[in-house]
Amino acid sequence: MTTYQPSHDQFTPAASGLVFNRIGYGAMQLAGPHVWGPPKDRASALAVLREAIELGINHIDTSDFYGPHITNQIIREALHPYRDGLAIVTKIGFVRGADQSWLPAASPQQLRDAVHDNLRNLGLDVLDVVNLRAPGIAGPDGSALAEPLAALVQLQREGLLRHIGLSNVDAAQVAEAQAITTIVCVQNQYNLAHRGDDAMIDTLAAQGIAYVPFFPLGGFSPLQSDTLNQVAARLQATPMQVALAWLLQRAPNVLVIPGTSSVAHLRENVAAGALRLDAQALTALESLANRL
Ligand SMILES: NC(=O)c1ccc[n+]([C@@H]2O[C@H](COP(=O)([O-])OP(=O)(O)OC[C@H]3O[C@@H](n4cnc5c(N)ncnc54)[C@H](OP(=O)(O)O)[C@@H]3O)[C@@H](O)[C@H]2O)c1
User: Fold this and answer.
1) CATH superfamily of 17-286
2) Sheet of strand 161-167, all strands in order from the earlier edge strand to the far edge
3) Any signal peptide, and if so, which residues (predicted)?
4) If you measure from the C-alpha of residue 83 to the centroid of ligand 1, how many angstroms do you get, rounded to a whole number?
C-alpha cells in the first residue's frame, strides 16, 4: 500500500464549515479498563494522540464520561494548544456512577454541567461539535429528544458549542431532531457485521450529514472472521484495515474513528485509507452482514 494522508480524503457536513479528514481517532480506549480510571500507561496514551495529529488526523472523538474526565485531560495534556483545523467532537447525555455504570443525565442542568466539564477538561472556550448521546445502552430506545435538544440549542446560542450532532438514534429521532435544529453528524453503532443503519447512512449522505460509526472494528471484542482474514491476506492488508476500508468505501459521508491505545495499531489504521477493496472482496464481505 502507498503512504496515506487523511487530508487527501475529506468530508464537510452541509452548512458546517468543518473539514473532516475521513480517518479520525476515537479516544475512548485511552481511559483504564471498562473506560474507567487512568490508563495503564499514560505516556503511551499521550504518544498515541500526538502521533494521530502527526499522521494527519483532524477529528478526535471523546467524552467527559470516559474516565470520567481522564480521557479529556489526557487529550489536553497531549495536544493543547490545539492545532488549527483539529475538531474535537464530544458527547453528553450520560454520567458515570461510582460503580462504573453509565447513567442517563440529560436534564437541561445536567447537559449544561456536562458542556462546562468538557470545556474545562479540554481547555477550550467553545466546543466544536457536541453529540447528544441518546438513552439506550444496547441501541436506540426511541426516547423523545425535544427537551435535551432545546437545552443544547440554548447552550449553542450562548456560544459554548458550535455544532450539534446525535448519537445512538433511530431514523424517527433524527427526523425529530432536524425539526428542532441543524444536525451535522450522527454517531451510531455500525461495522461490517452490524449493518442496521444502511438506510440511515444513505439518507444522511443525501442530506450532507456525516455518519460516524462507533465500534468500527467491533468495539470491545474486535471483529473476528475467517472470511475477513482471507480477504485481508489476499489484499496483503490486516483484517482491521479491511474493516476500515470497507467503511470508507460504504459512503462518502462515513467518517471513521477507530479507537486504539497502541501507536502501531494507529499507524495501521491510518494506512487503511490507501486500501481499495475490489469487487471480489466486497462480495465476500457481504456474508458477514449482521452475522458475527
Ligand atoms: N456514541 C457511543 O455511544 C459510543 C460507544 C462506543 C464508542 N464510541 C466512540 O467510538 C470510538 C471507537 O470505538 P471503540 O474504540 O470502542 O471500538 P473500535 O474502534 O471498534 O475497536 C477498538 C478495539 O480494537 C482494537 N484495535 C484498534 N486498532 C487495531 C488494529 N489495527 N489491530 C488490532 N486491534 C485493533 C483496540 O485495541 P488496542 O488498544 O490494543 O489497539 C480496541 O480493543 C471510541 O473510541 C469512542 O470515541 C462511541
Assistant:
1) NADP-dependent oxidoreductase domain (3.20.20.100)
2) 25-26, 59-61, 87-92, 127-133, 161-167, 183-189, 210-214
3) none
4) 24
